[in-house]
Amino acid sequence: MKAWQIRSYGSADVLMPVQLPDPQPLEGSVLIEVRAFGINRSELYTRQGHSGDAVTLPRVLGIECVGVVLDGGGTDLQKDQKVAACMGNMGRSYDGGYAEKTLIPRDHVFPIDVDLDWTTFGAIPETYLTAWGAIHEAIDLKPNTSLLIRGGTSAAGMACLSIAKGMGCEVFTTTRSEEKAALLVEMGADHVLIDGPNGVQADIKKILPEGVAGAIDFVGLQSTIMDCLRSTKPKGTVCMVGFLGDTWDYRFFPWMPSTVKLTLYSSETLTTVYATPALQHIVDQVSAGIYKPNIDEVFAFDDLPLAHRKMEQNRAAGKLVVLAQ
Prior knowledge:
By secondary structure, the protein is an alpha/beta fold. It folds into two domains: 2-124 and 293-323, Alpha-Beta Complex (Quinone Oxidoreductase, Chain A, domain 1); 127-267, Rossmann fold (3-Layer(aba) Sandwich), CATH 3.40.50. The protein is 28% helix and 26% strand. The protein has helices spanning 41-48, 118-122, 125-139, 155-166, 178-186, 201-207, 222-231, 272-287, 304-312, and strands at 2-5, 16-19, 29-38, 64-71, 82-86, 101-105, 109-111, 146-150, 170-175, 191-194, 212-217, 232-240, 261-264, 295-300, 319-323. The strands form three sheets. Strands 3, 4, 5, 6, 7, 14 and 15 form a seven-stranded mixed beta sheet that branches. It has a six-stranded parallel beta sheet with strand order 10-9-8-11-12-13, sandwiched between helices. Helix 6 (201-207) packs parallel to helix 7. The longest helix is centred in the C-terminal third of the chain and has 16 residues, at 272-287. The radius of gyration is 19 Å and the shape is globular. The protein starts with a strand and ends with a strand.
């Protein structure tokens, strides 16, 4: 089978097209014919060498994919079922979705009743399940309240916007680019704020003096996290999810505002018991036109390094999807 593999860390040039033996059926794991997969920033960080001992080389990257079951491995899944797969050390301690076929433990394979095309389906799993978990599990955001999304033009940021608007919430989103602001307005954001050195706290509190009910930070810098905390009302929650700012060193948490809570959400905790019904609901909402797939660009399998370069250069506004077949 065709796959993309890394044998060392570095630029997108370390992604190597290879021919590998087909994965063989294994009890308790699901053999999937991959039809599409999204590109995720965590894969970029892994390729750059930031994942440490969590990754062994050589490795086929890819923390998600969608496709059809070739062999259910003695589980409840049957041949030809449509499935998504996500996380669970996928593309880290074992080979992931950057291949024509992949073998994934059953607990991270989600059978979904779906009529969407493979491109649209492939844009959804990791991005929307992360957004869903941040909103419903981490923040426990209530309908008809308010949400700040820091890093609004990221794929997960756009997914948060769709989910929050579906809940009737007033949504504030940020972007560093004036050019991308119009896209967020078109997608339904109530307030689009241009992120700068002074943050957005003052702009938010002109509209909501107490602050927002919750905030999700996909940037992950000290300045943005502290600004989110100061933009959130007492007893509200800020959820840190992403690291668009490429920073992992935090030493400032004791100075957060009194009574505002800070939490973290990682999709590494996903399992089929939780994720399958959530993903089915999300897919149904996308099919109904309520949630948007937020696709920026679709790439052929042979052009996968181009997708990595586009993400690395921060030129995407939404999800980058690769068609595997």
